[in-house]
Specification:
The complex is a heterotrimer. By secondary structure, chain A is mainly α. Chain A has a single domain (about 1-275), classed as Orthogonal Bundle (ABC transporter involved in vitamin B12 uptake, BtuC), CATH 1.10.3470. Chain A has helices spanning about 1-35, 40-60, 60-85, 90-115, 140-160, 165-175, 175-180, 185-210, 220-230, 235-255, 265-275; strands at about 130, 135-140. In chain A, strand 1 and strand 2 (about 135-140) form a beta hairpin. Chain B has a domain at about 25-230. Chain B has 14 helices and two strands. Chain B has helices at about 1-20, 25-50, 55-70, 80-100, 105-125, 125-130, 150-170, 175-185, 185-190, 195-220, 230-245, 250-265, 270-285, 290-305; strands at about 135, 225. In chain B, helix 2 crosses helix 12 and helix 11 (about 230-245) crosses helix 12. In chain C, about 45% of the residues lie in helices and about 20% in strands. By secondary structure, chain C is of the alpha/beta class. Chain C has helices at about 1-20, 35-55, 80-90, 105-115, 145-160, 175-185, 205-215, 225-235, 255-260, 260-265, 280-295, 300-320, 325-335, and strands at about 20-30, 60, 65-75, 100, 120-125, 140, 165-170, 190-195, 220, 245, 270, 335-340, 340-345, 355-360, 365-370. Chain C has 13 helices and 15 strands. In chain C, the strands form three sheets. Chain C has a seven-stranded mixed β-sheet with strand order 8-7-9-10-11-14-15, with helices on both faces. In chain C, strands 2-3-1-4-5-6 form a six-stranded mixed β-sheet, with helices on both faces. Classes of the chains: A mainly alpha, B mainly alpha, C alpha/beta. Chains in contact: A-B, A-C, B-C. The interface of A and B includes residues 30, 36, 87 and 91 of A.
């Protein structure tokens, strides 16, 4: 029983890593701009498609394709911020509608351009199997965990110790005070969106070889990532990490003793229960001006 | 007075539609009415009270499946099943609403989304009662309203009832309290309003209306399937309310008409149509935030100004 | 003078246009959304049949020849859209027959409308058993229902002694219907873990771990080829050597390309028709399909092809391209030699096509294991 449990915890950590990647991007954008970008899932999906495109058309090098994808989507993110989300700041309802509009437009654009069938990103180097004791995992899976861990660490360092990161944190804590001390708040907005989108793109590009690239691939990770952020606390980066992992692990472990068709519900039920106990999430911080 | 006469004329014209319309047009009108009913409920919640629920249609599903089970398995008559189902959705709304309302803005939205997904799971997985994913066929049309023409009149009556309820609520003190809660909850609280009770009440009312829409929908289609009550449908409902004009009396009608009628008549290259739709939504939020009703009101005002 | 020439020209054009009589045939399917990939196979079948019928001059009724014109509507797995499409086909496009649909719930909304307007609806993919239990005389189904598929499969599985059987299944009508049917027939003693997943989910790691822990003798995969390829990859990568059983989607060369023969070797799947079987009707269809679409035929395409061919045959038999009721009567009594076998609708409108079980050989070919009478070796499956 213990072995089965451990195995599921590791499985959950792997699926949770994908949720964490998505959640990190969303929490960055939310923290700085207070915008909840539901369209994050389709950006993740576009990351997968663009990686496939760059890999097959431009370069045979996977790592390079991933970097190109991140750069391309960072630009897209900046454009979205300028064109759509900046004008809608403060209006939660319209942000949601605009995000939904983006989802519709981008998901169907992917279908129109690439067709409804799933694509495969073949990266032979990462298809090897790695043995951990009795269990075997594909290298790509471990790569996802490793890269996610590296990204999380890098983000911590960046936010805590770099000037730019500190400016981002300041903007998220109090926009007006940040402006007073001379931080270019609008530039922070663009940067956070670009960075957040790049993270989503990274997620899609990493997940592509292990699974498949298809138009709906971002839907579930987005919703689960969202649950993770809520659970962890809306503006909190450590919260996003912990939340994403908890959701992933809870889902996997639940299959040991609950009917598997309710696996999704488990994640949400846990989210609701934790929120009822701690309404701001595990690491949530009360923002200035909130009742 | 003039407005009342115009309204009466409109209603009379609507009832007379079957005499002039083709069966297909009637079908589209029925669906528009049936989508408008939950939209009215959501308008009260979202438009007037500011509660953005992303799980609204799950309550339509509750009404639908309760009625389906009562009519087919328990062999109850249509009207009793309808009454019980609407009460059940209202009750579910009160209970689930009470939980969701402990959260605000983004949190509230996502918790409602979560509940919507959980309810969908039940509809999809509980094979013994709901017949699961393959759907629950064999649901009868309301007795006396079995033809398309007669069902249209039933659907229209349901929609008019929903709008009448909306109008009554908006005009009442309760309605003013809801508006106050949307605009500045702290001030309302300071004036002694029991925010929690009022918000729960509107959530329950909205859910009951959704349930009414759900029962009529599955009676019309003669099948209840989880595919009718997905997250996508809940999101659709939000779009219907917002594009139609949230917080306006006619908004749900305009939105429902647009969302049902337009796709039916624009059956071209499917993906590109949806891409255009998505772009349109983004443009609406940027340039026409008060939705269709707002645009029409603005147009009206310009015409009035010019004629002076 | 010019005027007269123009009038003459116009008359000629009108005359030739009149000679090209058309009969509109309604199709309902999923062109967009997550069910678009299987929808494409369905459309391929219809398109191939329409092309062949028209290539041969069309349907001959009452001394005139009618070209088949497909009126396709995307129902996007939504029951309300299905009802609307059916309504439009019956009253605006005024088609004499409608075919297709992928999703059982949507078919449940289309069938009553078909009955209302007396337009026969011929299903070619949905497997929900209760569809044909509603007493709807205008509903027909060419493909096997879940009950029929499961009966055949259970027969085969029991002969092999593969128990306990665990499952990984789509949490939709096809997956759940399949699992429920198998559990009912095999009984609790012989069935084990059931791992459901949502359409669009791709990570089966938790299911894989549980299946390994349950020591299942065989795993049945109720899903289409895209998630199927991932599930099998993950099962094999985890070191599981259990017997794999798949759906008809996992019996094609296209599926083979997604994985490789190593991982698939030994896997069995039920099949509406094995593309390389030696029977002439199957081989001929596979060749024609490959020529037009450049890939191996899919069971859904074969079922849909047969459906349209039957509709055409019924129109000829009934002597009408517009009377739905006469068409329905013709269909009810029709016996048709289709690609998938001899098709004849029973009193409930359900056909009883043969269900095959094929198996992947190590060299990437297939063999037929069931029915016993149609057994064939590697390369002929």
């Amino acid at each position: 029983m213990a072995a089965a449990l451990l195995e599921q915890v590791i499985n959950g950590a792997m699926t949770g890593s994908v949720y964490v990647l998505v959640a990190l991007g969303m929490v960055l954008i939310y923290g700085v701009m207070h915008v909840l970008n539901f369209a994050h899932g389709v950006l993740f999906m576009l990351g997968g498609y663009l990686c496939h495109f760059f890999l097959t058309r431009l370069t045979g090098n996977y790592a390079l394709a991933v970097l190109l994808t991140m750069a391309a989507l960072a630009v897209v993110g900046a454009m979205l911020e300028r064109g759509v989300f900046r004008p809608l700041q403060g209006n939660l309802r319209n942000q949601v509608i605009a995000s939904l509009g983006l989802i519709l437009a981008l998901e169907n654009l992917a279908v129109a351009l690439w067709g409804p069938n799933a694509l495969q990103i073949k990266v032979p180097a990462t298809e090897r199997l790695v043995a951990l004791g009795e269990l075997r995992f594909p290298l790509q899976h471990l790569l996802i965990i490793g890269v996610t861990a590296a990204v999380v660490a890098a983000m911590f360092v960046f936010l805590k110790w770099s000037k730019f990161g500190t400016a981002l944190r300041a903007t998220s804590q109090d926009r007006n005070a940040a402006r007073v001390v001379g931080i270019p708040v609008e530039r922070m907005d663009v940067a956070s969106f670009a960075l957040g989108t790049a993270l989503a793109a990274l997620g899609g590009a990493l997940v592509g070889p292990l699974f498949l690239v298809f138009p709906q691939m971002g839907d579930a990770p987005m919703v689960k990532g969202l649950a993770g952020i809520l659970l962890g606390g809306m503006g909190s980066v450590p919260g996003a990490v912990v939340g994403g992992l908890i959701i992933g692990i809870a889902e996997s472990v639940s299959t040991l003793f609950l009917p598997t068709d309710y696996r999704d519900s488990v994640a949400f039920a846990i989210m609701v229960l934790i929120l009822l106990a701690r309404p701001r999430g595990l690491f949530g911080v009360r923002a200035r001006g909130e009742p | 007075m003039k407005r009342l006469v115009a309204l009466a004329a409109l209603v009379a014209a609507l009832y007379a539609v079957p005499a002039l319309a083709t069966p297909y047009l009637l079908h589209v009108m029925v669906l528009s009415c049936l989508y408008a009913i939950p939209a009215v409920g959501l308008n009260l919640m979202l438009g007037y009270t500011g509660l953005v629920s992303l799980g609204h249609i799950a309550f339509a599903g509750i009404g639908a499946y309760v009625a389906a089970w009562l009519m087919v398995d328990a062999r109850l008559g249509f009207w009793s099943a309808l009454a019980i189902a609407v009460a059940a959705s209202g009750l579910a709304g009160a209970l689930i609403g009470a939980i969701c309302l402990r959260f605000r803005s983004h949190f509230f939205m996502i918790v409602t989304l979560a509940f919507g997904l959980m309810l969908y799971s039940v509809m999809n997985n509980w094979d013994d009662v709901t017949r699961g994913a393959a759907g629950f066929p064999g649901i009868p049309r309301a007795p006396g309203f079995t033809t398309l023409e007669s069902f249209y009149r039933l659907a229209l009556s349901g929609a008019l009832l929903a709008f009448a309820i909306q109008w009554r609520v908006v005009r009442s003190d309760f309605g003013r309290i809801l508006l106050a809660l949307r605009q500045d909850e702290r001030l309302a609280l300071a004036k002694g309003v029991n925010a929690a009770l009022c918000k729960t009440a509107v959530f329950a009312l909205g859910s009951a209306l959704a349930g009414l829409g759900g029962v009529l929908l599955v009676s019309f289609l003669r099948v209840a399937a989880p595919a009718s009550f997905t997250l996508a449908e809940s999101i659709n409902a939000v779009l219907v309310v917002i594009v139609g004009g949230a917080g306006s009396l006619a908004g749900p009608a305009l939105g429902a008409l647009l969302f049902v009628a337009l796709p039916e008549y624009l059956r071209v290259a499917a993906e590109w149509r949806l891409v255009a739709f998505g772009v349109l939504l983004v443009l609406i939020t940027l340039f026409a935030p008060r939705g269709l009703a707002g645009l029409i009101a603005e147009g009206w005002r310009r015409v009035a100004r010019r004629s002076q | 003078m010019l005027m007269r020439l123009v009038i003459l020209l116009a008359a000629c054009i009108a005359a030739t246009a009149a000679a090209q009589d058309k009969v509109a045939v309604g199709i309902v399917t999923s062109l967009t959304g997550p069910m678009a990939p299987p929808g494409k196979f369905q459309m391929n079948g219809f398109n191939l049949a329409a092309e062949e019928i028209n290539g041969a001059g069309g349907i001959t009724v009452g001394g005139r020849k009618y070209m088949v014109d497909l009126k396709v509507y995307d129902t996007r797995a939504n029951p309300a859209e299905g009802a609307s499409a059916m309504q439009r086909l019956a009253t605006v496009d005024k088609v004499p027959v409608v075919l297709g649909e992928l999703h059982s719930g949507v078919a449940g909304a289309e069938a009553p409308v078909a009955q209302d307007y007396g337009v026969p609806l011929i299903l070619t993919v949905p497997t929900g058993p209760n569809l044909t239990e509603q007493g709807n005389r205008f509903l027909f189904r060419v493909n096997a229902s879940n009950d029929q598929l499961n009966l055949a499969l259970v027969d085969f599985i029991q002969k092999q002694g593969w128990a306990p059987l665990s499952f990984i299944a789509w949490n939709n009508d096809a997956g759940r219907g399949g699992v429920n049917g198998m559990k009912k027939l095999l009984g609790d003693a012989k069935t084990g873990y059931v791992g459901y997943f949502n359409v669009g989910e791709v990570d089966f790691s938790s299911h894989v771990s549980n299946i390994r822990a349950s020591n299942a003798r065989a795993v049945m995969l109720f899903m289409d080829e895209e998630p199927g390829s991932l599930a099998i990859k993950q099962l094999r990568d985890a070191g599981l050597k259990t017997q794999l059983i798949g759906t008809l989607a996992m019996g094609s060369d296209r599926f083979l390309k997604r994985l490789d023969a190593d991982r698939l070797a030994g896997m069995v799947q039920y099949n509406a028709f094995p593309p390389n079987a030696d029977t002439p009707r199957i081989r001929s269809f596979s060749e024609r399909y490959k020529k037009k679409f450049g890939e191996e035929a899919h069971g859904f395409a074969a079922q849909s092809y047969d459906g349209l061919m039957m509709a055409a045959a019924a129109m000829q038999k009934a002597g009408t391209v517009s009377d739905g009721k006469k068409l329905r009567d013709a269909l009810a009594g029709l016996e048709h030699d289709g690609v998938i076998g001899r098709i004849r609708f029973d009193a409930k409108g359900q056909a009883n096509p043969p269900v095959y079980v094929t198996q992947w050989c190590a060299n990437g070919m297939r063999r037929i294991l069931y029915p016993e009478s149609l057994k064939a070796d590697c390369g002929a499956g």
